[in-house]
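Subject: Ribonucleoside-diphosphate reductase

B.,
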Amino acid sequence: MALDTLNQDEVTYFDLNNELNIPKNGMIQIDKDREALEAFLKENVIPNTLKFDSLKAKFDYLLENEFIDKDMLNQYDFAFIEQLYAFLKSEQFKFKSFMAAYKFYAQYALKTNDQRFYVENYIDRVAMNSLFYANGDETLVMNLANEMIHQRYQPATPSFLNAGKARRGELVSCFVLQTTDDMNSIGRVINSALQLSKMGGGVGINLSNLREAGATIKGIANAASGVVPVMKLLEDSFSYSNQMGQRQGAGVVYLSVFHPDIMQFLSTKKENADEKIRVKTLSLGLTVPDKFYELIKKDAMMYLFSPYDVEREYGEPFNYIDITDEYDNLVANPRIKKTMIKARDLENEISKLQQESGYPYIINLDVVNRANPISGKVVSSNLCSEILQVQTPSIINNKQEYEEMGTDISCNLGSTNIVNMMETNDFASSVETMIRALSFVSDNSKLDVVPSVQKGNQALHAVGLGAMGLAAYFAKNKMYYGDEEALDFTNMYFMMLNYYSLLASNQIAKERKITFDGFEESEYANGKYFDKYLQNNFQPKTEKVQELFKQHHIPDQADWQYLKEQIQKFGLYNAYRLAIAPTGSISYVNDSTASLHPIINKIEERQEKKIGKIYYPAPYLKNDTLPYYESAYDLDMRKVIDVYSTAQQHIDQGMALTLFMRSTLPEGLYEWKNGRTNKMTTRDLNILRMYAYHKNIKSVYYIRTYTDDDGELGVNECESCSI
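Prediction pasted inline below.
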């Protein structure tokens, strides 16, 4: 019998797990989850796992059946592999919940070709990841194994799933492309989207450079079709290139709020949109400069500018014009075609759509570029809005060749598990091990199907180390989400993650005598990046947080001064190091709360295909931690923004910040609702977006709305970018 068609009548673990959702004597039956876990291992895993007489017999089988990468294995003596397994077994890893084990065996464990048996367990997957990323370095193998078996480090889903396999997909999580205003570029981007989607990653594409609908082409008025038909072509491309039927291709298109097609762009997601323009599976995002917020504040009219005219006047694509600085000049220039709308009307349209669909994502472009330490301009983002790197445009000739090759973006992701990281005895070593693993993925990604992406990857060696489990750490240590102690902890943790990731990247640059392209023009090289750390002493402010960090060395100003000198002398290997991606199924395997977000429910309900409902108790949920677990839907979202803002100051890229709203808001949650309707309105989202902007939030990823009939609108789980 295939594993995914097990007869549920023959097993007990689903029923035991479901008892989690049935209180007994007013208490949550937490013990039922442990019973479900034990039953799952006994009734499903043990009888359905292939048995081998020895480790050597197992590896012989894996090689003979082309399950594992022979070249990877040939880098090591088998005696060392036996040593690795002896260490991993000695650490006595155990899953902490039924959901963790179920998710691992359902989604990550290697299975026989007929799907009838498991071929590996959690230790095997950790071993394969460690052997693969270390690339023959036995010390690094053991360091990686140590980080992963203690679940301090978790590679993103594509990396964790595919590492070490002979028949594997790509390890990279996401990509970012842009198109320029010509048919050759549009054709090339569609081809690139097909290729990258086939590889498995989510793709972000910026369409802001395309001329608007009705624009002139070669003297013919009203000839241009605008961005919406291109969106339809891209949506069909992602539907077609669906990772061999395993998963729907995934993409997001971004547009500037100052593009003349902005209203049509937003209308493609409306439920009542005409089928000719409606996009169902494509995600939408907006790039928003400071000028938009300024015009909203003044309740002013805003001008939308023809990208073709702007490029003709300025000699570079619309994306690269600083709208905030040039706005008045653009308005005054009679050679630039423009249209007018009211800024607050557009603001309300954005909020209406976010209420209805969760879209669009918001990239606060000037906030991003003010904080960007790398020479160049960030113009777009990825499918989950956390990847924010510089790009340069390409010029494509009539043969679909690069006349001038620009740089596009790929990024591979991984995450620290905050609860477990705080228990490490060597924070610096842990982070260095993670940065080395991520750099290996960057160095060994085969991206020649899209040369501009390959060029960007080879130039920048960019990676994205993030974090999960912040809410779990707060609850475990009896801190309320968003309070003074929680913000103090967040500040310290991400300052340390920043410091030690810089230290690790500097060490790699020293060893290899290689820096990322453009290091000399960066704020790392001129030292400006370090000013905030040298002018401010980042140390814990509260007694509790001082106690929590007592076993760790918190970098002080002298440490930052030394690091600055080392980086100015030897450089950095990675142009970008940190990004907070959303964490999906892998956070369950880690027995962690997702990303930096608060929980949704103390007992989370998941609908699993072919199975039904599975319940997951929040990590460390006990009577004494219950009060510290408050649902995101009952929290003031300004607390979530505050937490993200505190972390953001230390993170060189972005963070996938989701806002959680009820369609009927809890009484007294927001003071501006006093005396008004308690229904969520566009005004509420307008205020929260403005608050996020003023707190220097770089991006707002998604709006999730919990409706009065206990359903979620706008639930979007990005599998490719999910850690």
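The first strand starts at residue 153 and ends at 155.

T.
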